[in-house]
Amino acid sequence: MKTQPKFSIVIANYNYGRYIEEAIKSVFSQTYSNWEIIVVDDGSTDNSVVNIKKFLPSKRIKLFELNKNMGCGYAKDYAIKKSNGDIVGILDSDDCLSINCLEEVVLAYNKESEAGMIYTTSFQCDSNLEKKKITDWVGALGDNKTNLHESRIDHFLTFRKELYSKTVGINNKLRSAVDKDLIYKLEEVTQPVFLDKPLYYRRDNDKGISQKKQEADAYLNCVDVMFDAFKRRKGLNFNNLSNRKMSEVLMKASLLATRRKKYILFVIFILRGIVLCPRNILLFYNFAIRKLFIKKR
User: Fold this and answer.
1) Are residues 215 and 124 part of one domain?
2) Which of 74, 81, 251, 257 is such that its CA lies 20 to 30 A from the CA of 225?
């Protein structure tokens, strides 16, 4: 890899006009200079596009506007394909990078010449982006483990652009769990490397009832994405979950599907779980009874 590779920061935005300027400014403030920004606005109805266009006099940022809301999966896939850098980094439109983020990541790629994907840890921040703590669940994967076995990979997620074409790409129909989908696919073509430095500021917005419901739905999408990876890895002969473990995940998620009144998804998850490991139906009943008992008490 070049010692000064071009770094593409891709941003998929939908109605985060109140934050997008701060995200873009964090890239313009980088100590590393060889970068570009690719922003795909996913049919925003707020002031997002107006705020993004404030930066367009610079040739280092490109804006692509979608005529209607296509979802995060479509927007991120589109942004990655439009990027021209050697390295791609994912920046959410309500988050920010530390001032030395790109410099540190490029140094890591130069040191780890075989690395195809490097990820860092992050600061968890409040809605004003004031630091609260370092994200403690992000870290190096255990021996013979992948992110499917233990969720350890998160922001700041970066990868070599050439590797993206070796995957089937992000499922562009996804509206959540997009980064999980990307991570699973990338680790099937390269070994992830963890850079143990908090170089990303992750904004935790106030969580009302509606956002908690969105998080529950996002988790159900995560399980769906996990199952897709599980099936794909069967064909690849790649390090995978056991049938029993995947069945357990599906059956436990089915209970959440019922609470979200997603009854078709409940049936799908249960049937998938039974096919993979029929005896897990006993686990499901025991788990369901405990949940009901605790809820009543």
Assistant:
1) no
2) 81
Q: Which residue has the tokens 């143990």?
A: 196
- Kindly state the tokens that stand for 276: 């993979």
Does residue 1 form part of some domain? no
pLDDT higher than 80, residue 143: yes
> Could you tell me if residue 134 is inside a domain?
yes
In a domain, 111, yes or no: yes
Tokens 């313009």 -> residue: 28
Phi, psi of 140 (to 5 degrees): -75, 145
Domain that includes residue 247, residue range: 209-296
Distance CA 115, CA 1 (A): 10
37 and 133 belong to one structural domain = yes
Tokens 């995978």 sit on residue: 240
State the Cα–Cα distance between residues 158 and 172, nearest whole angstrom.
19
Question: What's the pLDDT score for residue 296?
Answer: 45
CATH number, domain of 142, equals 3.90.550.10
* 159 shares its domain with 261: no
The reply to whether 103 and 53 lie within a common domain is: yes
> Is residue 248 a part of any domain in this protein?
yes
